[in-house]
Amino acid sequence: ETGVTQTPRHLVMGMTNKKSLKCEQHLGHNAMYWYKQSAKKPLELMFVYNFKEQTENNSVPSRFSPECPNSSHLFLHLHTLQPEDSALYLCASSQTDGSGANVLTFGAGSRLTVL
Amino acid sequence: GQNIDQPTEMTATEGAIVQINCTYQTSGFNGLFWYQQHAGEAPTFLSYNVLDGLEEKGRFSSFLSRSKGYSYLLLKELQMKDSASYLCAVKDSNYQLIWGAGTKLIIKP
User: Fold this and answer.
1) Which of A56-60, B4-8, B68-72 is predicted with the least confidence, judged by mean pLDDT?
2) Element (H, E) at B57
3) At A1, is the pLDDT very low, low, confident or very high (cuts 50, 70, 90)?
4) What's residue A100's pLDDT?
5) Which of A113, B26, B64, B75 is the most exposed, fewest CB within 10 Å of its CB?
6) What count of other Cβ atoms lies within 10 Å of the Cβ of residue B108?
7) What percentage of residues in chain A have a pLDDT greater than 90?
8) In this model, does residue A108 exceed pLDDT 90?
9) What is the pLDDT of residue A56?
10) What is the mean pLDDT of chain B?
């Protein structure tokens, strides 16, 4: 496998369920990201991990819980979500070098529907 | 506040040329990116501009004017496969990426 792989691609869950999204990158990058993409809205950065350490948490509700066990894997644990959390969740990775030129490589996303 | 503006939707004809504009107001500037996203797929990197001027890559070119807070993506010899959303993003002084809402480009035969 190459690039950034996300599973599942589609997920339907009730508000009381607990589920997890998984992301794996095969690029040797040192940074991984979770973004939320809603229709006709800019990408919203949720979490950033650099060398497995969380470096950003953009005021994301606690019902979203990230986990980064190593530099290749990233999870987003979901519990007691709200219907407004329905969106496409994109994982991305990059090789950060302190410059502005770091390119993000995205996964195809996990389409989440909360009923 | 920080803001990126780009048209919501554009329509163009196969074989023609289309220019997608992006204007930005950010606290500082450390580069501007264009990404392409086909429906149901991952965004993919198209171009990066940090200096003023035009960068050409095959049928796609990207232009930047830092003094005007303005960029455009130029697509030539349009093909049906160019139907996609085009995302503009700027890195601010803290190297945070500020994203536009994307421009959906529809190509008609």
Assistant:
1) A56-60
2) strand B53-57
3) low
4) 65
5) A113
6) 11
7) 78
8) yes
9) 74
10) 96
SS3 B82: helix
Nearest chain A residue to B96 by CA distance is A100
DSSP code at position A86: -
SS3 A112: strand
Residue B87 contacts A, CB cutoff 8 Å: yes
In angstroms, the separation between the Cα of residue A54 and the nearest Cα of chain B is 15
For A109, the closest of B42, B44, B45 (CB atoms) is B42
Write the DSSP symbol of residue A102.
P
pLDDT of residue A41: 94
How far apart are alpha carbons A92 and A15 in whole angstroms?
26
3-state secondary structure A3-16: CEEEECCEEEECCC
- Name which of A3, A100, A106 is nearest B95 (Cβ-Cβ): A100
Is residue A28 classed exposed, middle or buried when 0-12, 13-18 and 19+ CB atoms within 10 A define those classes?
A: exposed
Q: Which residues of B touch A59 (CB under 8 A)?
A: none
d(CA A73, CA B48): 27
DSSP reduced 3-state for A85: helix
What's the Cα-to-Cα distance from A92 to each of A48, A82, A104, rounded to whole Å?
9, 24, 6
What's the CA gap between A23 and A73, in Å, rounded?
6
Cα distances (angstroms) measured from residue A57 to each of A62, A78, A114: 10, 15, 22
The nearest CA of chain B is from the CA of A80 a distance in Å of 26
pLDDT recorded at residue B107: 98
